[in-house]
């Protein structure tokens, strides 16, 4: 192994793999370091794979990647204690030659992705934790130290795809510690069922079609959060995530929240008879645009969750991770080709390229959403409950006249929000933050 | 383990974590508590409830203790206690700790 690399990539998740793959393909001499037994063994996601981000690097990924089901139906549920009201979008147009979204099992997918990275010529070291960055006298990052014996490893640039906790960057003083209101804690269980049972329960035509359910309302017990249920081939991923600051304040055990969700009358029949084979917990960066740390400096840059690249509104993260990893790598390949060093000044092209991409355009569009949700818990409590009560009143036939029932429902909302002005203000606030 | 939600009680934490794979680094816990004089902070005490792996418990003296063998390395405790200085938190040595099968 040569002592000096063109680049060191910390982490073998979607962002680190995308960066390493892109640089490897371009002929750079890359070392990638992951702390897991194999790439994927420390990684957690819901998980939905968005084909586009991967396709831009590996156009024929569908031939070999471990994919579960492609998504033909998206359900969105507003939950109260006993009911759900929602919308479904199902379309045969999702049954296309190259489907747009897939459910995946991250540990298996990452293993596959890592194989492509190594085939692209990247040197991978696993079971190794990067402990700190090495700098020269001028403060430029020139390598990393690990928990393995043998001293530092050097490179022209270090790509930090180390995940949401961002410990290396943080302990090297490159970024501040995460704030509890900028990260969600999600817990998830993987429940196994026979493939044909999943097909029947979710009204699917074959083992390749899948359903995604996103859930808002009582699932988060008054906290800022959502629940989800994804169909894999022979399993169901079910989870719930809420802001860490809310968990700390409310002190609700996350697994109890998940158990409540699983026992909800709308969910229980979907899981009946299943066998739970894994329970995981993971943080999701949800602070949005304004929580993005400094992304570049002399000899380093940040990609993926470590850069807070998650679009919480659309539940997109792995595609932003892959895209930031790829774009960072393309910038480094360009600098290398032009014979320019990875200085803070030269790495500005990375930030510029991100601003031009959907990554920062989308995060900028929703930059007001995190604060809006944090300050308006009624969006998770009052409104979902109101919608379910309204549906009940609308559908139940009980001898009372419709006008009286409607008036009751509206009075209920007015009382819950303390006046119509508040309701109107809520609507304006949401519309503004969405723009 | 068959799902116990169908009419009976939810699984205990031990049953839940039993499904996971771990490589425990014996004698080298990656999370340690540095107890402060004057008692544990509300942040540290909150971990007894909100750690998703139930690693934190109150001992007989009413102090918070941590046993991170079942830790899923999410980082929640680190973030909640960042200002109190009561936690010493690092990732386990390479290869040790949780090993996700499905992730």
Automatic annotation (TrEMBL), chain A:
Superkingdom is Bacteria
Which residue intervals define the domain ETF-QO/FixC ubiquinone-binding in the entry?
A: 208-282
Query: According to its UniProt record, what is one Pfam family this protein matches?
Result: ETFQO_UQ-bd
Instruction: Select a single GO molecular function from the record's annotations and give it.
Output: FAD binding
* Matching InterPro entries: ETF-QO/FixC_UQ-bd, FAD/NAD-bd_sf, FixC-like, FixC-like_C
Per UniProt, which keywords does this protein have?
A: FAD, Flavoprotein, Oxidoreductase
Q: Which coenzyme or cofactor does it need?
A: FAD
Function in brief = Part of an electron transfer system. Could be required for the formation of a functional nitrogenase Fe protein. Probably accepts electrons from FixA/FixB and reduces a quinone.
Protein family according to the UniProt entry: Belongs to the ETF-QO/FixC family.
Any idea what this protein is called?
Answer: Protein FixC
What species was this sequence derived from? Rhodovulum steppense
From TrEMBL, chain B:
Segments crossing the lipid bilayer: none
- MF terms in GO: iron ion binding; iron-sulfur cluster binding
All residue ranges annotated as the 4Fe-4S ferredoxin-type domain in the record:
62-92
Ordered alphabetically, the record's keywords are: Electron transport, Iron, Iron-sulfur, Metal-binding, Transport
The reply on keyword Iron is yes
- Protein task: Could be a 3Fe-4S cluster-containing protein.
Protein name, please? Answer: Ferredoxin-like protein
Species of origin reads: Rhodovulum steppense
């Amino acid at each position: 192994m040569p002592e000096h690399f063109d680049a060191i990539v910390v982490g073998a998740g979607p962002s680190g793999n995308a960066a390493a793959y892109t640089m490897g393909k371009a002929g750079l001499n890359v070392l990638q370091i992951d702390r897991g037994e194999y790439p994927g063994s420390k990684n957690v996601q819901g998980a939905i794979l968005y084909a586009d981000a991967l396709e831009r690097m590996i156009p024929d990924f569908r031939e070999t990647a471990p994919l579960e089901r492609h998504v033909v139906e998206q359900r969105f549920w507003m939950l109260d204690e006993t009911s759900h009201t929602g919308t479904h979008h199902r379309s045969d147009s999702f049954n296309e030659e190259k489907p747009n979204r897939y459910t995946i099992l991250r540990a298996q997918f990452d293993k596959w992705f890592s194989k492509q990275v190594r085939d692209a010529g990247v040197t991978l070291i696993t079971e190794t934790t990067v402990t700190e960055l090495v700098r020269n006298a001028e403060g430029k990052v020139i390598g990393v130290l690990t928990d393995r014996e043998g001293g530092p490893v050097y490179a022209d640039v270090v790509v930090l795809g180390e995940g949401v906790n961002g410990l290396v960057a943080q302990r090297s003083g490159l970024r501040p510690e995460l704030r509890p209101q900028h990260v969600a804690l999600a817990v998830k269980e993987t429940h196994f069922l026979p493939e044909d049972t999943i097909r029947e329960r979710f009204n699917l035509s074959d083992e390749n079609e899948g359903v995604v359910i996103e859930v808002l309302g009582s699932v988060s017990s008054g906290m800022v959060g959502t629940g989800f249920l994804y169909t894999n081939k022979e399993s169901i991923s079910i989870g719930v995530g809420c802001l860490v600051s809310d968990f700390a304040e409310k002190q609700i055990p996350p697994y109890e929240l998940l158990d409540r969700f699983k026992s909800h009358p709308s969910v229980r029949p979907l899981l009946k008879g299943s066998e739970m084979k894994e329970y995981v917990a993971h943080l999701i960066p949800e602070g949005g645009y304004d929580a993005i740390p400094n992304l570049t400096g002399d000899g380093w840059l940040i990609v993926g969750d470590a850069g807070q690249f998650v679009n919480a509104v659309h539940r997109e993260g792995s595609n932003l991770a892959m895209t930031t990893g790829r774009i960072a790598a393309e910038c480094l390949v360009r600098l290398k080709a032009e014979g320019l060093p990875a200085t803070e000044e030269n790495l500005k092209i990375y930030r510029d390229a991100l601003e031009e991409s959907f990554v920062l355009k989308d995060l900028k569009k929703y930059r007001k959403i995190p604060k809006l949700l944090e300050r308006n818990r009624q969006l998770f409590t009052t409104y979902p409950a109101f919608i379910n009560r309204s549906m009940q009143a609308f559908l139940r036939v009980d001898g009372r006249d419709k006008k009286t029932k409607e008036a009751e429902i509206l009075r209920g909302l007015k009382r819950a929000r303390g006046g119509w002005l508040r309701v109107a203000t809520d609507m304006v606030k949401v519309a503004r933050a969405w723009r | 383990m068959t799902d116990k939600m169908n009419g009976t009680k939810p699984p205990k934490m031990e049953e839940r974590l039993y499904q996971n794979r771990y490589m425990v680094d014996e004698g080298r816990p990656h999370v340690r508590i540095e107890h402060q004089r004057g008692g544990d902070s509300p942040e540290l005490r909150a971990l007894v409830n909100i750690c998703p792996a139930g690693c934190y418990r109150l001992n007989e003296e009413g102090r918070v203790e941590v046993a991170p063998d079942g830790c899923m390395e999410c980082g929640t405790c680190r973030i909640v206690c960042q200002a109190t200085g009561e936690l010493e938190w690092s990732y386990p040595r390479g290869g040790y700790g949780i090993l996700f099968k499905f992730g």
